[in-house]
Amino acid sequence: MEYDNIFILRYMGNKNRLLNFVVPAIEEVTGEGDTVCDPMAGTHCICYALKNRNKIIANDIQQYSYIIGRALIENNTETISKDEAEEELTGFYLKNQKENRFRFFYENYTDTYFAKEQCLAIDSIRYAIDMVGDKYKQALYLCALMHAMCKVQSTPGHFAQFMPKEHQRILPLRAMDVWEEFLNKCDDFRKIVNNGMENKVYRTDYKELLSNMDDSVSCYYIDPPYSGEQYSRFYHVLETVVKYDNPKLKHKALYRNDRFKSGFCYKRSVESEFELIMKEVSERQSSLVISYSEKGTLPLEKLKKLSSRYFKHVDFRQNSHTHSTLGKGSNNIKEILLILN
Fold it and tell me: By the 8 A CB rule, do 182 and 148 touch?
């Protein structure tokens, strides 16, 4: 089956290519119109694939993810296009090119992740987006900007490090036009799924979200980090462009000084993180669907044993998937689904 999907950015553990594996499992334990909650939604592709059928509550601690959720999940009616963007934003874009009112990327990222002209374009697009009055249209434009930035970045495929100046791939990447890539992406948002429901998106720690949920949620879906790699290390530049809060940057890779670190990435805490979720969800008598990996930080046998402690029915499924390692080649890894109720 073909599910609704708008590709925004290449993301570690992204489920864009696994929709036909994950979404049917959630559909099995929910009815049409039931509420599905994703407490760590990332790019929101699972939520968006379900939106035609279910009411969605989504959350992520990262601001860039919250913006994607606002654009695709909470928003039911606003759209944008290339023509509309040119009409609405060009004047402000050119104004910032001339006056440099927004200049954080130009001053901090020139000749690192982007060329000088690309940094100026990012600042200018971001300034123009700030002039848009509607929060959902702002979010849609920010999604297009994030996509453009990911397409032109001088990196192996993530923002954990930038390429050295002598790298053979850097010249064609530095020659790419951010404004053109941004405008072209806007056409992908000419249509947004409208399910006629009051979908909600939050930006908080998943533990706080769970503690405030009522019993109306039929199914929780979680796709936590599988490894010791912190997502905030790979997407800090996107966090900065959406917040545009002039953060202090540190290290050679220019990380933000307020990066979030997930307990799922540490062997000492990953089991307790899973247990907290299972306990909360089972007490509400809701279903829980977990995406994980055969090479996850928590061994599968421990995850299964923990699941059996809190749920009567434990359905274990696996699917081979060529997994992107964002610049380190690709691995054929078994993706795991646990359907618990």
Answer: yes
Specify the residue for token string 């941004």: 182
| pLDDT tens digits along 107-133 | 999 999 899 999 999 999 999 999 999
Beta partners for residue 118, in sequence order: none
| Rounded Cα distance, 212 and 208, in Å | 6
Cβ atoms 288, 341 nearer than 8 A: yes
Helix (H, G, I), strand (E, B) or coil at 49: helix
DSSP 257: T
Residue owning tokens 């993810």: 65
Residue 42 sits at the vertex; the CA angle it makes with 36 and 48, to the nearest 5 degrees, is 45
Question: Which domains can be identified in the chain, with CATH numbers?
Answer: 16-73+193-225+262-340 (3.40.50.150), 82-189 (no CATH)
145 and 105 in contact (C-beta within 8 Å)?
A: no
Put simply, whether the predicted model's pTM sits higher than 0.90 gets the answer yes
CB 121 within 8 A of CB 179: yes
User: Could you read off the pLDDT of 101-111 as tens digits, one per residue?
Assistant: 999 999 999 99
